[in-house]
Amino acid sequence: MLKKLGAPIEPVKLSEMSREQLIARIELLEERERRHVERETTLIKIGKKLKTLTKTDKKLTKLANSKALEEQLVKEVARSLRTETPLAVMMLDLDGLKKVNDTLGHDTGDKMLFAVQEVIVGRIRKEDFAAREGGDEFYILMPKTHLEGAQNVGNDIKTKLSNYLENHIAVEEDNIKNANSEDERKREEKDRDDWNALRKLLPKGISISVGIAVMDEYSHSVIDIDKIRDIGQGLRREADERMYGEKKGKKTEPETEYALF
Prior knowledge:
This protein is an alpha+beta fold.
């Protein structure tokens, strides 16, 4: 019994609710709070995903798209100027994609695009930036990279792509042997048959044409830093022109499936 100024006080009734009802009300409030937190978390995740989707080639390769490429190019040119380090811009164009689409269908053409993406991602560094411009065109931005280093990357990608079909078909054969179900085995067999059809159409392997433009430390003194976007576009145009020069050379020498630098 509590006392105040010597007078007895009756216990205060906090609620007419029973203990069970009070516990149920608390649990209900906790459940509402949990759902609210879940909704907030989901909305945040959706927002991040939408932001990513607007900057990626979401349908096929999952590489950055042209919008993200433009933004990153501005950043890399600015960084190159600020740190006085070279920047290499590489443009890669997949040879023969139209022929594959027309002959074997777009699904097989998509497999070619995915092969290019896989090889590019497997070769570049963490600080490099790869994007698919659309169609059969890809770009790689390579900070702190001179011409020779960029050429080595281009040569490696060409070589890996030329061997990709043989290597991938061997992987598919292993997948067929190790399939855990009949449905899985059939899927793997279809993939193998698609890759085999592509190999027959491209007996010398997947081929790309490459062009490289480099902004090195010697050019910084003549570059107007207020025109960073124009500088980036100039590098792209130079890389494009060199790529088309290589592609034109292949057309005049049809026996050469791919050319190293």
